[in-house]
Amino acid sequence: MIKLAPSILAADFGHLHEEIQKTVASGADYIHLDIMDGHFVPNLTFGPELVKYINGVTDLPLDVHLMISNPEEYLEVYAAAGADLLTVHFEAVEEPEKVLNTIRELGILSAISVSPNTPVEVIFPYLDDADWLLIMSVHPGFAGQKFIRDSIAKISAARQHIDTQGVTCQIEVDGGIDLKTAPQVVAAGADILVAGSAFYKSGDYGEFVCRMREVTNPKKDA
Ligand code: DX5
Ligand code: ZN
């Protein structure tokens, strides 16, 4: 079954507690938190205090996406804030293997991400150290962007590598995921889908999750 991780960045921050409760009630599997530093990406969001707050009001696992420079300096603080999984960008680290292992030593899952302009093959040597591989299907920095179609080929290449090399890493896809693009990325081999705008603009989150499950599990009725 495909897992869903709504990105809280697209939620209504004026009613954050209610938004989290509604996200939990929708049947989503994780909450995706986009951390941006205004340096690695041209936007700023929130930091460990918000992760800590959200961790205090839900049992859903927190998938924390670090779009920051020098992520190795902040791993401990985000793990302590309640992250269940920490994603670092390949483009932001010099020693991916070391950073991924530090995350695992903190007792949480590790993930590595590639931005649209980075070939996915560059992270293949590090997949034994990563629980998830995050393929960005928009340029990191903002919610609400258009899905980049070239990502499909990257997902397929990663799926093939993982399946043929006996790697256990799961593939997460993030950016521009909606009811139309979700089946395409799942067909290419994605395991976990992030959805920001499509989820929070849907009006009925539970209905959205049901629809996503329908469109990403088409074989059920075959
Ligand atoms: C982009 C973020 C995404 C984004 C997803 O930098 O990493 O997680 O919030 O939002 P949508 O689904 O609106 O593209
Ligand atoms: Zn993200």
Notes on the structure:
- It is a single chain.
- This protein has 222 residues and is an alpha/beta fold.
- It has a single domain (3-216), classed as Aldolase class I (TIM Barrel, Alpha-Beta Barrel).
- 34% of the residues lie in helices and 18% in strands.
- It contains 8 helices and 8 strands.
- It has an 8-stranded parallel β-sheet.
- Strand 6 (132-136), helix 5 (151-165) and strand 7 (170-174) form a beta-alpha-beta unit.
- Helix 2 (48-57) packs parallel to helix 3 (75-81).
- D-xylitol-5-phosphate is lined by residues 7, 9-10, 32, 34, 65, 67, 138, 140-145, 174-177, 194-198.
Give the N-to-C terminal Cα separation.
16 Å
Main sheet makeup:
8 strands, parallel
SSE pattern, N- to C-terminal:
EHEHEHEHEEHEHEHH
Percentage of residues in strands: 15-25%
CATH homologous superfamily (4th level) name = Aldolase class I
Ligands in the model, by name, code or SMILES, are:
D-xylitol-5-phosphate, zinc ion
User: In the CATH hierarchy, what is the class?
Assistant: Alpha Beta
The shape is globular
Number of helices: 8
- What is the helix content? 25-40%
The strand count comes to: 8
CATH architecture: Alpha-Beta Barrel
